[in-house]
Amino acid sequence: MSTTSELTRLREFLNELIPSEDQLVRLYQNFCAQIRKGLGSKTNKDASTKCYLTYVQDFPTGNETGKYLALDLGGSKFRVLLIHLKGDSEAEQITKIYDLTERELHSTGVELFDYIAKCLHEFVCEQKVDNEHMPLGFTFSFPCVQTGLSRATLVRWTKGFNCSDTVGEDIGLMLKAAIARRPGLRIDMVAILNDTTGTQMSCAHRNPSCNIGLIVGTGCNACYTEKVENCERLDSKYKDKPKIIINVEWGAFGEKGGVDHLFTDYDRTVDQNSINRGAQIFEKMVSGMYMGELVRLILLRAVNENLVFAQCKLRKHITDILTKKPHCIETKVLSDIANDRGDDWPLVKDVFKQVFNLNNADPDDCMKFKFICDVVVKRSGNMIGVTLSGLVNKVGESFSVIGVDGTVYRCHPNFDGYMRETLDRFVDKDYKYDMMLSEDGSGRGAALVAAVVHRDYMERKSLNAKLRQ
Fold first, then answer.
1. Which of 205, 247, 456, 460 could form a disulfide bond with 60, CB atoms 3.0-4.6 angstroms apart?
2. Are 340 and 346 in contact (CB under 8 A)?
3. pLDDT digit string (tens) for 401-428?
4. Are strands 134-140 and 65-73 parallel, antiparallel or unpaired?
5. Which residues contact 469 (CB under 8 A, 6 or more apart)?
6. Helix 363-395 to helix 21-39 angle, to the nearest 10 degrees?
């Protein structure tokens, strides 16, 4: 049985990972300052949150109808979706997943998009819609600078891709050219978006009050609806509509300061061991890709200071594994054991058995390990809640819905509550908010963007026809 002094020592040891009220206030102020910089034409270059213009300015009404395609490319597999929107009725959705081999991942851009166009052609033929004109929304989850609704310049490849002749090129034009090279393929790629925008649009289809999109999964990012008069970098030809979705790219928050007061030695080690040192600082503190590794580093130091496993016969073995096997603790473990309520700690013991080959772990060590995991997850949820509150206040609506997706949010039973803790403290008293789980933002959201773009096109076409009469 742990003594009170042992538990007190552990809490003191973890104190630097438990942000104080003053630290959270400073985080809020720094984040809001970065958003202002990101929106400014003269200050954008100095902002860590670049606040990219998405050019998505039309929003779902919930009455959208018709068939639309979505293409979701973000890893070694990609999805093609046919979505039949039926207004208030439940949409029908057909999805097919295609693999990308090493050949496509490391080919030329022309070869990659020719292969994707080939798969698109096969898909529409299989679904017997090859004779229909099909608007397509393209979710492209790689760093891009958008220059229009269907135009995006690739900044760099990630996730194992290394296609030549693509960086600095317009991905939208490359896909359109590949589609045009296939005779009989009647697909019109009308919009490129990232998964946060898709998440917001997916939720806005069900609730028009959704004006913020959030992803908390392997990575972390957010978008929100901004008034066009606040977007200094937006060309005047796009200011005939009142609003536009901004892709905050807040994973980079902290690259120019802003989170230094919360940055621990554990965070510093994670950053130094990453393939992109000095980049994506906020993401490395809060996202699923890194939380398991943070727990490993914290647990290693706790073991070395005799705070955990002090009486365990396999202590040296555990230390060796924690030292020599980075990422031996996966982030999904943090979600799994959150449901362990201390009745003999079966879930924690299962983790110890798999990671350390440790049987019959001491219940006190189980409790301490779960406490370490909870501290890491709560810090993430609290920090995201602070930055989200900055967006809720920036939107400035009496009621805002935050559309959320991502494995961390979906799988951790307490994450929603941890975000609400700080949202409730930092959202202005005049504003209310709620959160909504997204339904396939990268798929259905992309199709919805295609739908609203098509709707706008048809409305303008009808208006022009009337004006010519």
1. 205
2. yes
3. 999 999 999 999 999 999 999 999 999 9
4. parallel
5. none
6. 40
141 is catalytic: yes
User: Which residues on neighbouring strands pair with residue 187, listed in sequence order?
Assistant: 134
User: From the candidates 26, 48, 72, 79, which is the catalytic residue?
Assistant: 79
79 is catalytic: yes
Catalytic residue, chosen from 48, 107, 141, 400, is: 141
276-289 pLDDT per residue, tens: 899 999 999 999 99
Residue 181 bears catalytic tag: no
For the question of whether the overall pTM of this predicted structure is more than 0.85, the answer is: yes
Give residue for tokens 């980049």: 279
